[in-house]
Design brief:
The chain is 19% helix and 30% strand. It is an alpha+beta fold.
């Protein structure tokens, strides 16, 4: 007669899977750290634990703090089972080998549980102790080595919940336990890209776009701080929100959200928020609308899917009242959603790509669908209202173009009488004798000021001379500085037909952002003579791969490998930024350890286009990244000192490809034994790169030591084909396991960049089950990789995921 089995996903001190089989009226249980595998060759450690009552099969929820096993429990799978042959469960358990046939939602077919050893107190007549067993799949028709059941089916079969949270823990960051340290670790905000259409609505989730001030709420123990995008501490301005975050059931957290003022019908208003901050409370109430979670109790969750992060956030905020509101998803057809939100007088919608990670900077995984265009502007002056001397009739505005401000027109509507007077008084505290912005026209009666304040306007479009058409004043942006008021592009200008709709034939325009973008020079120049691949082809490839490539490059100092005369011409390496670097290119001073050189960083599509124009076919990246919020010498040096991953470069030398494959799998096996996740890509030439995410706070020396230990261990196991000898003569044709590229300032070839080989071969991430002798790196080219991406997604995204210590 079939008996019950259940597998519960349990996030206690570590995430594991509790496999339970009904035997003798109770649930005999094993803790399986990595969960079941459908690969018969994969043996998973299973530690026998105490029996549980059958009623526990129904438990899904949270074991409270302070109790044994504190943390979330999900019913990951359940169903019926029989032994093979039936009715032998007790005798098989006593003998130490259970062969069972499972009939569950996720687990089906035959499985083995084999005891390795018995603990000293494991008496047959008494409790089983903590005996170690192996759990593995039988070689039946259901076996499938390519199927990762825990990764592809992470959710509960009862509730559908996917995300789990362990016990409350603090102190996960090296160097202290303060909110500021947490902010500096994860404080690079994700920004949305403007869009007008979506390629496939089924791949997106939707939220209301709110009208307020964006803040990261950071908590470390009793220390709570609220930070703006410019790293300003605004905790003192919203003390009730600070107190509410302090009441959350977490010792550490970083929450992304927007502080808003809402009217009686629930509409958010930037103007109402400013009135509230000025002491004019009125009927508006202020709340912090939270929409994402970046960190929770020693765990960096940015690499989790957006669905998992929001699930954790919703449970964290549950029951904490309106001061901390969760931004719920808006369900329905996008066209209908847009109409409902528009009819309600709201600003717009935010679309987030399902399954996407939290990536700092502007990202195509977050799209803003607005009903009106918005622009942040620096205030360069004002014109008095007719018949008055102390009331604003219109503001004179400017937008940022790199490190300069350019005139962007005037706005005269959207003010009430009180604002016209108070803003005039405030602007008159920093007058200027002449316009402080470029292109400002001669304006009778203008009061020019030093551009220190930023406002936000709604408008229809840009005129040919760069002014806003039909602008309306919405309020001050006290969370922004003048040089952050960059001209907002419309969807057409941002080429969302390519980034959003996936049009691979679309090409970057010659100019962007008010003429500041790159111009493609000599697009017809052939860079790959035997394939007829031109500079225009490289430009197009970089533009199309940008949504996937930019997250890997963002914040990282780069070395460029340039081929101005094509791959048959002279190549040269460029490490330092040229004297005339465009304003849209971010530069990072890498400090005295690296001769205070300015290094190029690629954070945006304009920079990527510029690199294509330079014929920088191959881009080499540092393993660390500097977020835009790191602006001091100390914070930049701290970021440069902490790698995101370490890498092992398998260089085959004169050996066969089969040696690369054998060594790669040996490396992976050893890394798995160390509980380290790894990601693999082709080098674009004859080798493979294996990347392993590092723990938060790790140093380059620590990463190098682990990489060296792994390399030496594999070379010792496979001495006939692998070596760690640096000198080529001593390698004797063996494969070189290079662990030396992990020091600060050392580089590897970035994923998805081009190598100077016929066909324009691309360094391409692959699945581990693709790493066989049949794998041919030459098949991954600029003409094939985009289609591969559409099928498999970014297989190297996990390399950006730092682990908790």
């Amino acid at each position: 007669m079939p008996l019950a089995f259940v597998v519960q996903k349990h996030d206690a001190r570590r995430l594991h899977y509790d496999v339970r089989l009904e035997i003798g009226g109770a649930m005999t249980s094993w803790a399986v750290p990595k969960g079941p595998s459908y690969d018969p060759d994969v043996r998973r450690l299973a530690i026998q634990t105490e029996d549980h009552p059958i009623e526990y099969n129904e438990f899904e929820g949270r074991i409270p703090e302070g109790e044994y096993g504190a943390g979330d429990v999900l019913i990951w799978d359940r169903g019926r089972y029989q032994t093979v042959p039936p009715g032998q469960e007790r005798s098989m358990l006593d003998k130490g080998h259970l062969r069972v046939r499972l009939e569950g939602t996720k687990l089906v077919g035959e499985w083995h549980l084999v005891r390795l050893q018995r603990s000293a107190d494991d008496d047959r007549a008494g409790p089983p102790g903590r005996a170690q067993w192996l759990l593995f799949k039988a070689k039946d028709e259901h076996a499938d080595p390519s199927y990762d059941v825990t990764a592809e089916n992470p959710g509960s079969v009862v509730s559908g919940r996917r995300a789990t949270r362990g016990p409350r823990r603090a102190g996960g960051l090296a160097g202290g336990k303060t909110a500021r340290i947490l902010y500096e670790a994860v404080g690079e905000f994700a920004l949305a890209t403007s869009a007008s259409t979506l390629p496939d609505p089924a791949h997106w989730t939707f939220e209301i776009k709110y009208d307020g001030y964006r803040l990261l709420a950071c908590r470390a123990g009793s220390d709570v701080r609220l930070y703006t995008r410019s790293a300003h501490d605004w905790t003192h301005r919203f003390e009730e929100i600070q107190k509410a975050v302090l009441r959350l059931a977490a010792d550490e957290c970083v929450i992304d959200g927007e502080v808003c003022a809402f009217d009686e019908v629930g509409r958010s208003s930037l103007f109402a928020l400013q009135q509230w901050l000025a002491g004019q409370k009125g009927r508006a109430h202020v709340a912090y609308v939270a929409f994402d979670l970046l960190w929770l109790d020693r765990r960096d969750v940015r690499a989790e899917s957006v669905e998992a992060r929001r699930e954790l956030l919703e449970r964290l905020l549950d029951g904490h009242g309106p001061i901390l509101s969760f931004s719920r998803s808006a369900d329905g057809e996008p066209a209908k959603l847009v109409q409902v939100v528009k009819d309600a007088g709201l600003e717009g919608l935010i679309a987030k790509r399902r399954g996407s990670r939290y990536a700092g900077g502007r990202t195509p995984d977050w799209l803003k669908l607005r009903f009106h265009r918005r622009q942040e502007c620096a205030i360069a002056g004002w014109i008095p209202m007719v018949g008055t001397a102390d009331q604003i009739g219109a503001l004179l505005l400017a937008v940022a173009d790199g490190q300069r401000l350019v005139f962007a027109g005037r706005v005269g509507t959207g003010f009430d009488a009180s604002t016209r007077r108070s803003l005039a008084r405030r602007l008159d505290t920093h007058p200027a004798s002449a316009p402080q912005v470029e292109g400002a026209p001669s304006t009778k009666g203008a009061h020019w000021v030093m551009p220190k304040l930023v406002c936000e306007c709604r408008f229809v479009d840009w005129t040919r001379d760069g002014s806003m058409r039909e602008p309306r004043y919405l309020g001050l942006r006290e969370d922004k500085g003048p040089l952050e008021a960059v001209r907002e592009l419309g969807p057409a200008q941002e080429q969302t037909s390519r980034e959003v709709e996936g049009d691979r034939e679309a090409r970057p325009s010659a100019t962007k952002v008010g003429g500041r973008g790159p111009h493609l020079v000599r697009p017809e120049k052939i860079l790959f003579p035997r394939d007829g691949i031109t500079k225009r082809d490289i430009w197009d490839y970089f533009a199309n791969i940008a949504p996937v490539l930019l997250p890997h490059l963002s914040g990282r100092p780069l070395t460029l490998q340039r081929y101005p005369d094509g791959i048959d011409g002279q190549e040269w390496y460029q490490q330092n930024a040229p004297a005339k670097t465009p304003a849209f290119v971010r530069l990072v001073d890498v400090g005295p350890r690296h001769e205070n050189k300015n290094r190029i960083v690629c954070d945006n599509l304009e920079t990527l286009g510029w690199l294509a124009n330079l014929a920088a076919l191959t881009i080499h990246q540092w393993s660390c990244h500097v977020p835009v919020t790191a602006t001091t010498r100390t914070s930049i040096d701290r970021a440069l000192a902490q790698p995101d991953y370490f890498v092992l470069d398998l260089d085959p030398g004169s050996g066969p490809w089969a040696h690369v494959i054998e060594v790669a799998h040996a490396v992976r096996t050893l890394l798995e034994a160390l509980a380290l996740e790894s990601f693999v890509k082709t080098s674009g030439k004859r080798g493979l790169h294996i990347a392993v995410p590092t723990a938060s706070g790790s140093t380059h020396d620590q990463a190098t030591r682990v990489a060296e230990q792994v390399a030496r261990a594999v070379a010792k196991v496979l001495p006939q084909i692998a070596t760690v000898e640096r000198t080529k003569d001593k390698r004797k044709g063996r494969l070189y396991i290079d662990y030396g590229q992990n020091g600060e300032g050392r580089t590897i070839v970035s994923p998805y960049v081009i190598r100077a080989r016929d066909g324009a071969v691309v360094s391409t991430p692959v699945r581990w089950d693709e790493v066989t002798e049949r794998l041919d790196p030459k098949t991954f080219t600029i003409r094939t990789v985009l289609e591969r991406l559409s099928k498999h997604g970014d297989l190297f995204a996990g390399a950006l995921r730092r682990t908790a210590r």
